[in-house]
Amino acid sequence: MKGKLYGIGVGPGDSELMTVKAARIVGEADVIITPKTEKKDGSVALHIAEPYIQEHTEIVPVVFPMVLDDNEQSKGWEEARRIITGLLEEGKKVVFLTLGDPMFYSTYMYVYRLVESAGFDIETIPGVTAFCAIGSHLGYPIVEKEEVLAIIPATAPKEKIDAVLAVADDAVIMKVYRNFSEVQETLRKHDMAEEAVMISR
User: In this structure, what CATH number is given to the domain that contains residue 41?
Assistant: First the structure.
């Protein structure tokens, strides 16, 4: 009998913010896949899930190259698919950990498509997104009443960001580490800078 893949969002950083279901599935896993980059050791997602992991559970780090070269990326995805489907063929209960929510700017989405296309059973368990956790922590409503919320990657083309902010009441801007000064300038341009909040891990 073939195994099953679970994509689990571990939330923004606090182990207690993982859902009851996520914690239970992690505790029942035969294998836990932890995505990592070539440059960094360890896994933040694994550290968050650690309180729920059993001693017998096998931990398998899988490297996902964070590069612009499509060929290198494709090799990384293919290697991940090979490892995960191999474990599923053995009938293993495999958990893929991801920060925040699995379907929100996550490496898991690519893995999901590859494994699903190979015909394996998959279940995705949602997690708390960082921006929702930040709003709760600061007592800062993300959006209310008839307001329009925009979620924007700071890596998007500047014209696109300007166009979206021009019609949005509120905005969540992700991935600002590469161009923080440009983001500040853009927020000032749209009169959003004074009420903006910046949070970084």
Answer: 3.40.1010.10
Sign of the four-CA dihedral 104, 190, 160, 144: positive
Sign of CA dihedral 154, 157, 158, 162: negative
Residue-by-residue DSSP string for 153-195: ETTS-HHHHHHHHHH-SEEEEE-GGG-HHHHHHHHHHTT-STT
Residues 116 and 145 both lie in one domain: no
- Cα 129 from Cα 102, distance rounded (Å): 9
The residue assigned the tokens 């490496």 is 107
pLDDT tens string 7-48: 999 999 999 999 999 999 999 999 999 987 765 667 899 999
Structure tokens at 127: 């997690």
Domain coverage including residue 92: 4-125
Torsions phi, psi for 59 (to 5 deg): -105, 125
Residue where a domain terminates, one of 104, 125, 146: 125
Quick one: tokens of 11? 């939330």
Of 67, 17, 59, the residue nearest 42 (C-alpha): 59
Encoded tokens for 90:
């053995």
Global pTM? 0.90
What is the three-class DSSP state of 4?
A: strand
